[in-house]
Specification:
Blueprint: E1 4-7, H1 12-21, E2 25-26, E3 28-33, E4 39-44, E5 51-55, H2 62-77, E6 82-86, H3 106-117, E7 120-124, E8 142-145, H4 148-158, E9 162-166, H5 172-182, E10 186-188, E11 191-195, E12 198-201, E13 213-221, H6 225-236, E14 243-249, H7 255-261, E15 265-269, E16 277-279, H8 282-292
Parallel strand pairs: 1-2, 1-5, 5-6, 6-7, 7-8, 9-10, 9-13, 13-14, 14-15, 15-16
Antiparallel strand pairs: 3-4, 11-12
Helix pairs in contact: 1-8, 4-5
Bound molecules: ribose-5-phosphate.
């Protein structure tokens, strides 16, 4: 029996790409809301004994998590063999410590919740900062893939003479690896955040790279402030307008439009469906699935 892939709403394009590239059955679902707002989940077709893969975009997770858990419950009742979650963007990784007294460490609680429900997890470039590996918080096999190679491959075809620039210290882990894979230089800026939308970056030493195309690479673009401040700074330093690459474009309200209005070329992977998606993660995820479904 082939593994069955259920694609949750919002992830249709990546779902199609995955189903086209792998040897899977397509899971058929009815998902809707009752008039009172509660979720209705129905699985159509025989799933007993099957290995199940659920592809779910966990961006803005709160409204998605309950239908997801209801689906897991339904599939278990229907006698499936196993259920894995492919969440290319893994939510709730940034509240990874108690910053202020009385706060919850959401990253831990969310990991506990998913670990109780799924047999394994596959994700791409989770925001690992104070948590160094998913195994520190997930008690199920949790595979963290890296979008470095797909990004480098995209760069090779699209950008002339790139210099990779990490907009802050945390982004160095991606910037350095992308630069190595794309065989080009890299720099990292330092960033200070004074509020949700008030971010300032320091002066880089870019004099040697004025004839390059700057490519800002970060794991997440949220308000876009980190990228826009870095881009403004690069322009002030005499560089060309940068290409902004985010692995995950979570784009807080209006952020993508704002960035584009500022003249930035914004490119993201399809971990979250957005107009900026130019880098397909399906081949990477298919490789990861081969390890998990053995
Ligand atoms: C920070 O920890 C992340 O790596 C990103 O730099 C950050 O999430 C970007 O946020 P924003 O787009 O709101 O500046």
């Amino acid at each position: 029996m082939k593994p069955i892939v259920f694609v949750m709403p919002g992830q249709e394009a990546l779902g199609e790409s995955l189903l086209a590239g792998g040897d899977f059955e397509t899971g058929v679902l009815e998902l809707r809301h009752f008039p009172d707002g509660e979720s209705y989940v129905r699985v159509l077709g025989d799933v007993a004994g099957a290995q199940i893969i659920i592809l779910c975009q966990l961006h803005q997770p709160d409204a998605k998590i309950l239908p997801l858990l209801l689906l897991v419950g339904t599939l278990r009742d229907l006698g499936v063999e196993s259920i894995g979650l492919v969440a290319p963007y893994l939510a709730y990784m940034r509240q990874d410590k108690r910053f202020n007294e009385g706060e919850g460490i959401s990253a831990h609680y969310f990991a506990r919740l998913l670990s109780q429900q799924f047999d394994w997890l596959l994700t791409v470039d989770p925001h690992l900062h104070r948590i160094h590996a998913l195994s520190e918080v997930y008690s199920i096999p949790a595979l963290a893939l890296s979008a470095v190679q797909p990004i480098a491959q995209w760069l090779r075809g699209q950008v002339d003479k790139p210099i990779i620039i990490g907009p802050d210290g945390e982004s160095e882990q991606w910037a350095a690896k992308v630069a190595q894979a794309a065989n080009c230089p890299f720099e990292v800026l330092t960033k200070e955040r004074f509020g949700d939308r008030d971010v300032r970056v320091s002066l880089p030493h870019v004099e040697d790279f004025l004839d390059h195309t700057p490519v800002l690479v970060d794991d997440i673009i949220s308000t876009g402030q980190t990228m826009m401040q870095a881009a403004a700074h690069l322009r002030d330093s005499g560089m060309r307008a940068p290409v902004c690459i985010g692995v995950h474009g979570i784009f807080a309200a209006g952020a993508l439009t704002q960035m584009q209005a500022a003249g930035l070329r914004v490119v993201t992977t399809n971990s979250i469906a957005e107009a900026s998606n130019q880098i397909d993660l399906a081949p990477l995820i298919l490789e990861g699935l081969q390890q998990l479904l053995r």
